[in-house]
């Protein structure tokens, strides 16, 4: 195993610890080229920024130095990664104006010195992840659950079972969907049966059929994750009256699961918010009082429900109607 690979594996084994990152920065300082030495500076600066409070007098200078490094090197650093993963970002860099340049994109894509927030399709993840982590200790990866028409049934149950068993899912921190929807309710329980989604912190779905089977699979997942953001506005709302009982069951499962104890943001659809759903939310033994509760759909809530929720949580939604 090369020295570089050993450093990368040490960072991936302890992603919250700055020490392996700083040790790798020292190695890059001694053995790297100009681009490697610049990366060593970025690692040290961003680790320091992550530790120091907002009013720390060192922050302005650290931010200035971080911005200069990202302005000069973001494109070069990203160009070292698999082209299929960064082509869209590089295109944004090529066409970005002065109002949102390389330093801004770099701050979005580099965290404590290394790339983050890269997006994979379901099909490309297994094909690309090894190549990526051989080059970069990438964390906080996003798995996009839209299945293009040209892929279709090749993302079938057998493939998803293979994906769910793969320990490399440990690098995924976000599951998201892309319009138009296409993952489908039958696939969720298979993916969420994985014991390797321990880094999962965010689920953001738009027009995706998640519903009661998805919430049930999430609550019963063997992975020991703790969600911080859960957005399922249209994936449990807008259903016929006869199916509202499933929304009640889904919210009751969510409200009574410790997997949601660290939740910071919850987005639901207004259509299913009746008395039973509100009861489940306000009586939850796990949901934090500081939870930001948001609603999709845009219709105001009845006054009595709005006030009950407002006494229990922070609300970001249309006000009540009389």
Low-confidence stretches: 237-242
Distance between the termini: 68 Å
- N to C succession of SSEs: HHHHHHEEEHEHEHEHEHEHEHE
Tally of domains? 2
Helix count from the secondary structure assignment: 13
Largest sheet: 8 strands, parallel
**What spatial form do the alpha-carbon principal axes imply?**
globular
* CATH fold description of the largest domain: Leucine-rich repeat, LRR (right-handed beta-alpha superhelix)
Based on secondary structure, the structural category is alpha/beta
Number of strands: 10
Q: Tell me the fraction of residues in β-strands, as a range.
A: 5-15%
Q: How would you sum up this structure, described in words?
A:
The chain folds into 2 domains: 113 residues, no CATH class; 183 residues, Ribonuclease Inhibitor (Leucine-rich repeat, LRR (right-handed beta-alpha superhelix), Alpha-Beta Horseshoe). Helix content is 47%, strand content 11%. It has 13 helices and 10 strands. The strands form 2 sheets. Strands 3-4-5-6-7-8-9-10 form an 8-stranded parallel sheet. Strands 1-2 form a two-stranded antiparallel ribbon. About 2% of the residues have low confidence.
